[in-house]
Each structure stands twice: as structure tokens, then as C-alpha cells.
Amino acid sequence: MGALQELQNGRGGIVEVLGEPGSGKSRLLAQLTSAARARGVPVLDGRCYPSEQHDPLHVFTRALNGLMTSERLTDLSPAHAELLRAGLCARLGGRGAELPPLQLSQAVHALLNQAADGGLLLVLDDFHWADPQSLELADHLARWTFRAPVLLVLAHRPRQAAPSLLSTLAQGAEQDRVQRIELQPLNLDQAARLLGVRPDTGWLPSVLQESRGNPLYLLAQGDASPLGPGLRPDLLTGRLAPLAAELAVLDPAERLVAESAAVLGDRFSRDELSAVSELPVDETCAVVNALIQLDVMRPLRCSATQLGFRHPVLRRVLHDQADRCWRSQAHRRALTVLNRRAASASERAVHIELSTSSFTPEDLETLARAGKETEQSSPYDAVRWLLTALHGLPASEQSTGRLLGLIPPLARALRAANYLADDASLRMQLTQGSALGPGEAHRAAVRLCVIVECLHGRFSEAAELVTAELGTLREMDADNDLLAQLTIYRGIVSSLRGDDELPKVAAQALVLARAGGKRTTLAGAMALHALGELSAGRTAQCLASYDAAVRQMDELSHNEVYYHSEYLALLGWCAQALGRPREAESFYERGTAVVRDCSHNAMLPVLLSGLAEAQLRQGRLESARRSAAEAAELSGYLGAQQLRAVALAQEALCVTYADPPGSSRASALTEQAVTTLRRSACRWHGAAVLTLAEALLLQGSPDRCVSLLLELGGTDLRDLDPAQRPRAFELLTLASLSGGTGSTSMWADRTAGAAQTLRLPHNRAYALLSRGHVLVEQGDWDAAVALYEEAERAFDNAQLRLHRLTARIRAARAASNSSRPERAAELWASAQELAEQWDVLLLARLSPDTPLENSLGRGCHALLPAPIPPVTGLEVLTEREREVARVAGTGRRTREIAEALGLSPRTVEVHLSRIYRKLEIGSRAELARLMAVRISTDART
């Protein structure tokens, strides 16, 4: 506007306006001409068009048409008037002679000087498209100074302008005859003003970056869609009409190569263009040179072979206007090209999407890798690709882990994409094939992210996410069911990280669920409430809520719990804490059956680990081992290290019990699990440590058992779930007894205190065991037997088979030194029978044939019967009878003895009757006692 003011003051000049296409040159010129007219300054304006590059002087003919009246021409010299009539006026009628440019420019100069008594503004826009004669005329005008106040403004794109024009204007700028205005990209504040939004608008930086600060493209993208700019068809007849007109003049070969480039993407080479366009390389190179001259393409910096479009919007216009069938085939050809140059998965994913709707397994694998690559850099694309892979890849037992491995990057992409709050198409894709509506997709995305954060041990982040979402829902006055669901998730986070908020959060969830929650939500709230009451030590209220949750869950159909398997995990967790592993197993089995229908449900390893624990405590070791092994594998795919440590510990304990004494496999699995431990205050870490401590104790490492457990918050085990403390203190008591540390009474007292806090039958059984260990240490054998047998009955009522079995063996050990030593053999025989029945080989193989100094280690000595005082008398038996007696003394049945010795059951019965007669005994239990005595005597001698 300064030049306009100078014009009014009687001083003209030349102004050069240059900038990228769409940078605002025409807008600036429009503002200039409007301001000039408002001040009474005459305005002449003309625009060049690519279609008129072969029409000489057309831009000047249009611009000066209003000046070339008969009166003005009469006032000029006859020579000048004739030149103007022949050179410009005649062209309005489609005629016009070729005139010397110098004389013509002098005539135009004279005309402008004559008309500019009070100032005159001549504006020539898009002059890079000017024809050669107009360029030469402008060159002469720019070299001469106007006598009158004439302001000549030339706007052009420097990349497309003629070298001669650029040279003249540059020389004029050096001599201060030409004022240069170069338009720069917009900054954030300028972009905000242009779009009419605040500078801190969330989507503005990404749109500004995508537009490269170009006003035209910024407006087009702002009109299209914040955060995911796309091009609507109406934009090509609106803001982008000049761009569409520019592309319309391309010849067929240029259009083909340009569209091939649009298919290839942001960068491409001439060879790649040849492959996609299917034109010969030489012809492709010639067309590329033409497109560079037209500034459709540009060589990329720092590359001798790569090219790109001058702006991404130009590429999208070409891509959208290409024939759909051709475009699909071209994308497949582009994919072949990218495969040859080992392009990244994200580069190839674009072409896979746009080339077909029927994806091959290889296509889906590429999409999965692309989603992982772009989870942060391009989260919306990542979500789309990962969901396509998850829905498309075949589900099988072998592929479950691989599919679960896509869940963490999907969760991270969902978080980066604001949980799809502003992308309806992705919300629809997220809920594809489910009963959830697109309106529920945002909440589903939030819940998935909470689960993944918990699996990765980021409980604070999970809590913050749920709390923020709850705040948003309350502001929206959401219904109680949604509020209850997210409050349950908040409670799950509290329960996993062991904070004191669980009882309060659980009570809030139950109130909300009762006030308007669905049946499924109410079942989940009841299960959470039961856990909350248990953590607060209110066992009566816990049992009431648990029973109500079980009844509510039993009424729900498969479809109702399909999207809420976490509620079944809560109920199984509660049942396990209450000492009801059989019931826990039923909930975990139902949960795994539900989620296996969806092979990429992140809850699967959680449910499998819970199932393994329930099976393990019931003595179903092989089933537990398989569940734990699968949970460990799937947790690894998910990156859930704490959960993986639990599953590995469970597998190690299963193998410890199931393998014979001294198993190297058990030791190796235990050490592997120990190395995966990462110190944390979460429930999973406590469970892993407790399970590994039991395995180490059984393998003869009481010191390591104690050391590991004491890492859970010192002697109070304050970092361990209160429901697990009685079991942990009982292990510490037994480890103290086995290691002879003298702390047995202290740990027994702590076991009793923990059991008193949570008054449940199985906790009382742990307290009884611990007190029995103390009595063993004190030599009060009869009282110890009574406590062990009472503990066994309590474990039996609680369905805890393994603990029942170990309690019986401890009773047998104590009985061997009691006033009734014959009771030891009976207990030992029945214990081994149970161990054989349940395939607990660690205990079943501890027959009297095996000396105590076997590879068991000190940790198992507390489980074994002590030697009974030696007696003799087996010499009266024959060799065969001694063989039968030795096998029968282990507690085996007649048929098992027959199979072991290759005899018939009838023959075994005959041998046994002779053995009873010769040894003067009347039962197999007495035989077992005598055999145990003989083996112990042999071991000492």
C-alpha cells in the first residue's frame, strides 16, 4: 500500500509480486485494486492464462482496452495511434499485425503517460503465462521510466517465469527502479486469522504444516476437514478452480505421467514413472521435463533422481481425478515398484489399500507392519491399517499371539488419534463386526487403552486416562451405565496397583450400576465390590457381594459378556482370593471361551493366567502348565512383562510338582521366571514372587525363598495383596524351619495375624500349618499331627488339593515321631496314592526306596515322613515276595503292582497273602510301615 500512496503523491514505479502458486498474489492484487478505486485512482488490470500463450499481446489488449478510445488515440501522435490500432485494437476482433516491439512499447508508454494525469495503476497478474510478445513488451516497459505517475504491478511465479523477465526485474531491483515483494509462508497467527480460529486450536498446527503455509491450500484443507484434510469435489469448482484449470491444459501424455506420479506418492523417479505409466523411459523423461517447466513437478533437494509435486494438494487433485479402474491397477504396479526398492511398509500400505478390497495374507502382514511404523507419526493411518489387519488376518491358535502383538501399537495409535473422537469412519471400522455402534467406539478405544496401559504396568497413566474420561462424561451428563463401566475400570486399575482407593471406587461403581446400569454392568460392579470389601477386610460383605455377582453373571448370555470378559476375570480373581479355585476355574474358562471367539482380545492372557492358578491349586498340573505356558507366550506378544512373569512362575511351579525330584527342567523354568521379575508394587508382581518362592522352596532353596518374599515390603509384606499374605507367611515359616533360621515362631504369628484379618477357611488352614511347623520345631509331634490334619480338612473344604496333599505329608512326618508311629505309614501311603492319582510326581516318587539325601534339597525335607525306628524280619521273604512287598509298600494298588512287575493281579494277591502271613501283619498299611522302616535302616547303614 506504500506504493499506492506514492502514486497519489505523484510518483509512480514498478512493483514485482512473486510467490508460490496459491501464496496469495492474486488476493494481494485484489486488495490493491480495491484500495486504489476507493481512492479514485484509475485501475487497469489483466491476467494471463495458460490457454492464451499462443495469442500475442492478449493480456495487454484486455488491460488497455478501456484506454484506447478514439479521443485518446487522437491526442497521441499519428504513429503511436496507428501502432496501437494495428497492434492492440485489431486483436479484439481476432486480427492484428506483427509490429516491432520497441515501437509498440513506445506507443503503450505514451498512452499510459497521457492517461495518468492524476495517477494510474496497471496490474498484470499470472505473468509467468504471458506470451512471448507480451513478455517483450513488458520488458521494454520495465526498462523505461514513466513521465507520469504510473504504477505497474507484475505478479508471477518465479519458477515458471521467463528468464528474460526475471533478468529485467532483477536488474531493476538492483537499480531501485523495481520494488520486489516476495510472499512468504504464513505463520501460526496468520493462519489462524485467515481461517477465523484461535491460534491454539488443536488441529491448526497439523493443517498449517500440511499446507506448508500456503494460503490457498490452507483454506482448501480448512474447508475440507480439520485433522484429516481431504478434497471434496466442490473444492475443484471453488477455491481450487485455478488449480484444476491449470491441470486441464496438460496433454494426454503429460496427464498420464502426472497421474502416475500422483499414484506413486510424494517422491518418485523417472524409471518408476515409466513403470507405472507403462510409457517408454525416453518418452517419460521428455514428458517429465515438460511437467517440470510447468511447475507441476520439481526435482527434490539432495537427490539427483527423485522428483516430487510442488505441493501435496496438487497430487491429491490429480489422484482424485484419475480414472478409478486405471488408478487401482496403477497402485498395484506402484506396489511392485516399491517392493523392488525395498520401500518401508508404510509406503507400500497406501498402495495396498488403494489397489484392492480383497487383501492377501501378505498384504495384511504389510498393513500390520505399517501400522506399527506409523503409530505416532501418522496415528489415523496406523489405526486404519492395524484394524484392517486384525479383522482380515486368519485367526488360529498359531496366529493368536501375532494378532495380540498388534494390540499395543493400536492402543498407542488410538491415544495419539484422540481415541477417534473426530473420525467417524475409523469409529465405524473399530466396531466392525460387533454389536457395538459407532457411537460406542470412542469408549471402546478408551477401555482398550486402559487395558494395555495396565498390561504394560503403567497404572498411573491408566488411572489418569479413566479419570479424565469420567470427567468428560459427567460434563456431558452421560447415563449411569457409561459412568458405571468406566468406574469399574478405575477400580480394576486400583486393584492391580494395590492402592487404598479400591473400596471407595467399587462402592461408587455399584451405586451407579444399580441406578441405571445394564445387567452386565451390574454383574461387573458386584464383582468389583466383592474385591473392594475383601481388600478392606470385610469378609462377610465380600461374600454377600460375591454370591450376588455370581447369580447375576449366571443369568447373562454369551453375547452379553462378549465385550466385558474383564468382569469374568474380576469374578475369577475374587473366587480365587476366597479360596474357591473350582469356582474360579469356571469363570476363567467361560472368559477364555468368550475371548477366543475374538483372537485379538487383550484379556486372553489375563484369563489364561487366572485359569492356570485355579487349575494348579486343584492339583491339575498338566492343564495348569498348558494354560500358564500359553499365557506366558501371549503376554510376551503383548509386551505385558509383569503378567508374563506370573505365567512363567506358574509354569515353573507346575513342572516342579509334576516332574520327579531334582528335575533340571523345573530348575531351568524357575530361573527363567526369576530373571523376568521387575520390581513393582502391582498385584501381578506379588503373585509372581509368591509362586516362585514356593517353587524355590520345593527345589531346596529356603534362603532364596525368604529373600525373594522379603522384597515384597519387608517382614510385613506390605507390597503383597492382603489376600495372599497368609500363604506367603506360611511359606516363610516353612522356609525358616527347613533352613534352621530360628524365625519359625515369628512367621507363624504373622500368618495367624494375616488370617485373622481375612477370616476365611483356607487362611485359617495356612495359620494351622504355620503353627504346626512351630510345634515340629519344638518336638511336640502329637500336637503338630493334629494341626496338620485339621489344616488338611480345611484345604479339602476349600478345594485346594495341592495344599491338602502337602498337609497330609507333613502330618505323616510328624506322626513318625509321635506316640502313634503306625499312623505315619498310613498317612504316607494314602498321600502317595493321592500324589499318583493327581500326577504330582515330586511327591509320588518319594518312595521309601529313595533316601532323603536324594537331589531333593532341604526345602522338601519338611514335606517328607521322618524315619520310623528300625525293625527287621524281611529275611523270611523270598526274592519275588520282597519285590512285591517293596512295590506294595509305596501305596500302589494291586493292578499297578502287577503291571510294574509283569505279573497277573491274582498272582500279586497270592504273594501278598503269603507276605502277611510270614510277617504276621494284617493290612497293606502295616506293610508300608515295615517297608519304610527297612528302607530307612538301609539308608543309614
Secondary structure topology:
Elements: H1 2-8, E1 13-18, H2 25-38, E2 43-47, H3 58-64, H4 70-75, H5 78-87, H6 101-115, E3 120-125, H7 132-143, E4 150-156, H8 163-174, E5 178-182, H9 188-195, H10 204-211, H11 215-224, H12 241-248, H13 252-264, H14 270-277, H15 281-293, E6 297-299, E7 307-309, H16 312-321, H17 324-340, H18 345-355, H19 361-373, H20 379-392, H21 400-404, H22 407-416, H23 424-430, H24 441-455, H25 459-475, H26 480-497, H27 502-514, H28 519-535, H29 539-554, H30 558-561, H31 565-577, H32 581-596, H33 604-617, H34 621-638, H35 641-658, H36 664-676, H37 683-698, H38 702-710, H39 725-739, H40 744-757, H41 761-778, H42 781-797, H43 801-815, H44 822-837, H45 841-844, H46 879-888, H47 894-901, H48 905-919, H49 924-940
Parallel strand pairs: 1-4, 1-5, 2-3, 3-4
Antiparallel strand pairs: 6-7
Helix pairs in contact: 5-6, 6-7, 7-8, 10-11, 13-14, 13-15, 13-16, 13-17, 14-15, 14-17, 17-18, 18-19, 19-20, 20-22, 22-24, 24-25, 25-26, 26-27, 26-28, 27-28, 28-29, 28-31, 29-31, 31-32, 31-33, 32-33, 33-34, 33-35, 34-35, 35-36, 35-37, 36-37, 37-38, 37-39, 38-39, 39-40, 39-41, 40-41, 41-42, 42-43, ...
